[in-house]
Specification:
Elements lengths: L29 H10 L4 H4 L3 H14 L7 H15 L3 E5 L5 H12 L4 E6 L2 H14 L5 E5 L2 H10 L8 E4 L5 H11 L8 E4 L2 H5 L1 H7 L3 H10 L11 H4 L3 H4 L14 E11 L5 E12 L1
Parallel strand pairs: 1-2, 1-4, 2-3, 4-5
Antiparallel strand pairs: 5-7, 6-7
Amino acid sequence: MALPSEASFDEKKAYVAQEEEGQAFFDDGREIELLHFLYSHPSIDEIRGSPPKVLQAIDEYGRTKKYLMNVGEDKGKLVTDLIAEVKPTTMVELGGYVGYSAVLFGNAVREAGGHRYISLERNPEFAAVIMSLVDLAGLSDVVKVVVGPSAQSIKRLHENGTLQHIDLMFLDHYKPAYTTDLKLCEHLGLVTPGSVLAADNVIKPGNPPYLAYVRSSITEKRAQYESGETAKETAEFAARTRNQYIKREGEEKLSTEIKGNPNLRYESKIVHSFEPTGVPDGIEITRCVAEE
């Protein structure tokens, strides 16, 4: 489903433009600066306990101070509409950054009658920002923040019984890990018929391996599985995407030994939208409809 041809971006709400190639656009102190901005905000008393007002304040920072790599209002609305439809008991996000999505989607899960929103964030500083803003929004009873590499966190949560099934998953972390982490979730039985996936940034910067996988037929996936072919790691991604976290985390090594469950049938389509800067992007919405 694409947006109507007349759909356009409201430039009045655009974030500051993302920095150019070679310049830092995150992890340069702006995330802590955001916390100070919110907690010193003239409307802090009204912001406390209000998820919409926390989001408005984050957006205000992104529009007037520095770019933030948030999902933003436009793409966020696509996912909150999906939450209202799916009504997940448990929703998982891979990549939390400063907590914009955790506040927006965690609140939507609560309003839809759900019980748990689990935010997996590798960077402990970003995770601390998420926890602070989740608390500020009054969502600590719903949102759980887990610190560590996504694959390790998924395995640990499954092993200790915290995570037994994923009703809805939002993928917005290291782009080459979308496919390998989905295959891990398939392997563990966390993604099954009825599970729904929403993958961000499938246009900007793009994610060809993930789109190829979720759009493949069972016949194609079985052939790949039986041949022993595993997911390509990072070769199909531009250097800025491939090396996005190298300064802090070092070179990323994806786990490609898990080949997933090729018997799961997906129905998948892109929904076009916009980055908070106004740059066109889209979310791939994928529904697991059967196991054959």
